[in-house]
Specification:
The complex is a heterodimer of chains A (about 150) and B (about 700). Chain A is mainly beta and about 150 residues long. Chain A has one domain (about 10-145): OB fold (Dihydrolipoamide Acetyltransferase, E2P). Helices cover about 10% and strands about 50% of the residues of chain A. Chain A has helices spanning about 1-10, 65-70, 145, and strands spanning about 10-20, 20-25, 30-35, 50-55, 60-65, 80-90, 90-95, 100-105, 110-115, 125-135, 135-140. In chain A, the strands form two sheets. Chain A has a six-stranded mixed beta sheet with strand order 8-1-2-11-10-9. Chain A has a five-stranded mixed beta sheet with strand order 3-6-7-5-4. The longest helix of chain A is centred in the N-terminal third of the chain and has 8 residues, at about 1-10. Chain B contains 25 helices and 22 strands. In chain B, the strands form five sheets. Chain B has a six-stranded mixed beta sheet with strand order 14-18-19-17-16-15. A five-stranded mixed beta sheet of chain B has the order 6-8-9-11-10. A five-stranded mixed beta sheet of chain B has the order 20-12-13-22-21, with no helix packed on it. Chain B is flat. Chain B starts with 6 loop residues before the first helix and ends with a helix. Mean pLDDT of chain B is about 75; it is low at about 130-155, about 270-310 and about 520-525. Classes of the chains: A mainly beta (about 150), B alpha+beta (about 700). Chains A and B meet through β4, β5 and β7 of A and β21 and β22 of B.
């Protein structure tokens, strides 16, 4: 019983680094993490899409949070990873991150929910909570917000 | 017996029979005396009934049974085919189609009884007595007989037993045993009917006692029976178990049974009077009598619901054989490679190359064959249109005829599934807007009956479907005015637009020139939907029209969707694929040959002026290369338009597998998909049709 309760109230997150900030991605959405590979540019697509990659015969679009949140363009290093997200059945999207750090388990009590209000600036809608782990703060990504087409609130 | 495993076959075959019925009744409407057609209809209706009964769909069975009764009377010349009757029959077919689609979704036939249609059918039947007594009287007795037999076999309660047999029944009930009367239908294609019957008898004797059979056991052994026989059977087992046992015998189409109450069984002697009375009764009453039989047969239906029938393709066995052969060759090729790599002789590289070539040949053939398996003749979509046109003709009160050609043209299954609606829209358009009313046709000196043509044919890598009518054609001025009125275009714009551009406006959403909205068309959704659908399939629609003479809608579709032959080109550092289907030639054009028309680059090639499209500009390619002394220009065509696509260099021809880019990335129409190259890199496919 005790175990069950913990499982319900805690969530696992993959902690990634983008720019100077640490972000947490709910592990439920993550299908895969792959190393950087050649990205084929897709002309006339949304500006924050880097292009498409081939993952075992499947073509997957890759987006950049940096470009979407108007940060400096990505610099590819050997730590750069593409997180393959599966927000819904039959729909896959890749997300570029600077570095993948670890997997953390956060209790309900360690998560501070952010309620997005209309006055919030663009970036906050990508985040739906702040997690506290080992004295560090992790911004928890709102995957639906990140992948949605809307660029401005 | 678990019937769910037969559900798919049932659905497939029912649809086939239904389609057949539709076609044949259409013929019958034109040639009411055609006996071949009547026989064909009767057979189809009979099979449909049998199948519905076997599967335990009693409502469907009842409807088909009544329908069969009508056909049976027609076949025996007792009933004449009338327009009203054809209408009822078509309603009936629609109702059956309704059953089938419900069954397909839920594995159950639903609760619609279609009483109204059944009543009409019975009215049609009853009408024969006072309607046309002449025919039935003059009919030779011979003709009557098979029909009588038919009824007798189905109609259990009419069978009479001898005194001795009745005694046996009474005894059995006293002992607490059950008495059943069972009708067994043998499959019509069965060759050894007697053998099958014997097996049924054997199965029955294992669990009880056969009191009587109709025809007699001797006759059955001598194959002196049609396709069904009945038995009276005493057993301690349940009816459904007995029926299940019978159905286990192969080539037995169905078995129906009822519990016999010995008290109600008619004894010989009463027979004659009863039978006569029975015969004069309209066949309609028989429907009621067979109903309980169907009900009991249905109890065998499993409670477990297994809906959702898979989408399937019926494949010609020859195509499968070819596939099988190719797969064996593939294995041989693989073994060849293994042995070459194992041996370390000096000929290794040569042997290796040979094997690779072999492998390549086999895979190409394999691909072709698999594609062929996916190909379905367009017939499966278009064969419902004659019926639709007939209905429209009645509804719109216009005389029209549909002529179809090229129904055997094959298209990929995925295309076939999608093409039905657009074609239907176009045909409805032609029927409603295209064809003029009878008065105007007469004024214009056209034949009274309007013609609509549906032609399909293969053209290179495309399949072309043309919907043509000899009607009014598109009134360009009317469209122009309408467009201005609706604010789709400004009057100034309208001035500068060519007729063709005006016609293209028709494909814009919510644009209809019909003065009034009918329930056939005119809501202005049709053409827009057609265009979207066809374009989603990778095809395009074109209109040719002459006012007063008619119009033609030309649909062009790719032969297959999944794999195409493409030319790989390089632009900047990026690779793109252009479908070979749209490429006409590849030219080396000196830069000095480029001319300018309205500040746009064109080239003059063999008498035609062709606009140049610089792919690097269109696709915003970074690190563009400077023009050398000459340009590589890929000349592409779309319909009768041409364009020259300027690329940096050619890589070569390649077979590519088309993949989608997924739903998140918004792609321009120029990019029709992506493909994975041999080295794992992704290349995008440029749709030349959009560029032209």
């Amino acid at each position: 019983m005790e175990d069950n309760k913990i499982a319900v109230s805690s969530k696992q997150f993959i902690v990634v680094k983008i720019d100077n900030e640490q972000f947490g991605i709910n592990i439920e959405y993550v299908d895969n993490i792959v190393r950087m590979q050649k990205i084929t540019r897709v002309p006339k697509a949304q500006h924050y899409f880097k292009g498409v990659i081939n993952l075992r015969g499947e073509i997957i679009p890759v987006m950049s949070i940096r470009l979407k949140s108007n940060l400096k363009d990505d610099v590819y290093t050997d730590k750069t990873r593409i997180i393959i997200l599966k927000p819904e059945q039959q729909a896959v999207i890749g997300m570029l991150v600077d570095e993948v750090k670890e997997v953390v388990t956060l209790e309900e009590s360690e998560i501070e929910k952010i309620v997005a209000d209309n006055n919030a600036d663009e970036k906050t809608s990508y985040i739906n909570g702040i997690g506290k782990s080992k004295g560090e703060l992790i911004s928890l990504l709102n995957i639906q917000g990140v992948i949605s087409d809307k660029e401005t609130m | 017996m678990d019937i769910s495993q037969y559900l798919e076959i049932f659905l497939d075959e029912s649809k086939e029979h239904l389609q057949n019925l539709n076609e044949q009744i259409l013929i019958l409407e034109k040639e009411p005396e055609n006996t071949d057609t009547i026989n064909e209809i009767f057979r189809a209706a009979h099979s449909l009934k049998g199948m519905a009964g076997t599967m335990g769909f009693k409502r469907m069975q009842r409807l088909t049974h009544d329908m069969e009764n009508v056909f049976s009377e027609v076949r025996n010349g007792k009933l004449k085919v009338t327009a009203g009757m054809v209408d009822v029959l078509f309603q009936c077919l629609d109702a059956i189609e309704g059953y089938i689609s419900i069954i397909q979704e839920t594995a159950d036939e639903g609760t619609e009884d279609n009483e109204a249609i059944i009543k009409e059918l019975n009215d049609t039947l009853a009408g024969k007595e006072d309607g046309d007594p002449m025919v039935s009287d003059s009919e030779p007795a011979k003709e009557k007989e098979p029909a009588k037999e038919d009824k007798q076999a189905v109609d259990l309660s009419n069978i009479v037993v001898s005194e001795y047999e009745k005694h046996a029944f009474d005894e059995a009930t006293e002992k607490g045993l059950n008495v059943y009367s069972i009708v067994v239908h043998v499959d019509e294609t069965c060759v050894l009917k007697a053998a099958r019957a014997f097996l049924v008898f054997k199965a029955l004797e294992e669990c009880g006692e056969i009191v009587k059979s109709v025809p007699s056991t001797q006759d059955i052994e001598d194959e002196k029976f049609d396709f069904d026989f009945s038995v009276f059977f005493i057993t301690s087992e349940k009816l459904e178990d007995v029926l299940a046992k019978i159905k286990e015998v192969s080539e037995i189409k169905s078995a129906e049974g009822v519990v016999i109450d010995p008290k109600t069984v008619k004894v010989e002697g009463e027979e004659k009077a009863e039978e006569k009375h029975e015969e004069t009764k309209p066949a309609a009453t028989q429907a009621k009598e067979t109903k309980p039989a169907a009900k009991t047969a249905q109890t065998g239906k499993p409670a477990t619901s297994k809906p959702v029938v898979n989408r399937s393709v019926r494949v010609d066995i020859e195509k499968l054989d070819v596939l099988m052969n190719l797969v064996s060759e593939l294995i041989i090729a693989k073994n060849g490679l293994v042995s070459v790599s194992a041996s370390d002789s000096a000929h290794n590289t040569q042997g290796f190359n040979e094997q690779i070539e072999y492998l390549e040949r086999v895979t190409t053939n394999l691909h072709e064959s698999v594609m062929k398996v996916r190909m379905v003749p367009i017939e499966s979509v278009v064969n419902r249109f004659p019926r639709m046109i007939r209905d429209l003709s009645k509804k719109l009160n216009k005389k029209m005829e549909l002529y179809m050609s090229g129904e055997d043209t094959e298209l990929d299954r995925t295309v076939i599934d999608e093409i039905g609606d657009p074609l239907m829209h176009l045909l409805r358009n032609s029927a409603d807007h295209g064809l003029e009313s009878a008065e105007i046709r007469a004024e214009r000196g056209k034949p009274e009956v309007g013609s609509i043509f549906l032609d399909a044919y293969q053209d290179g890598n495309n399949v072309v479907i043309e919907v043509r009518d000899d009607g009014n054609g598109i009134d360009i001025e009317k469209v122009r005015n309408k467009a201005i009125e609706k604010g789709t275009i400004t009057p100034e714009q309208a001035e500068g637009m060519s007729d063709k551009e005006i016609v293209d406006l028709l494909f814009k959403p919510s644009f209809s020139t019909a003065e009034k909205i009918s329930d056939v068309s005119g809501r202005g959704v049709g053409l827009d939907v057609v265009k979207t659908k066809i374009e989603a399939l990778g095809g395009d629609v074109e209109v040719k029209t002459t006012y007063g003479e008619g119009s033609t809608f030309i649909i062009r579709l790719p032969l297959t969707l999944a794999i195409i032959q493409a030319l790989m080109v390089e632009v900047g550092n990026e690779k793109y694929a252009i479908s070979l289907g749209s490429i006409q030639t590849i030219e080396d054009v000196p830069v000095s040959d480029i001319k300018y028309v309205q500040t746009k680059e064109v080239i003059h090639l063999r008498g035609t002026v062709i606009p140049l499209i610089r792919l690097a500009d269109v696709l915003d390619v970074p690190d563009k290369k400077e023009d050398g002394e000459s340009l590589t220009v890929v000349i592409v065509t779309k319909g009768d338009k041409q364009a020259g696509i300027v690329v940096d260099s050619l890589i070569g021809q390649q077979e590519i597998v088309i993949k989608s880019l997924g739903k998140f990335i918004n792609i321009n129409k120029i990019i029709s998909g992506a493909t994975i190259l041999g080295d794992g890199e992704v290349a995008l496919i440029v749709d030349a049709n959009v560029l032209v």
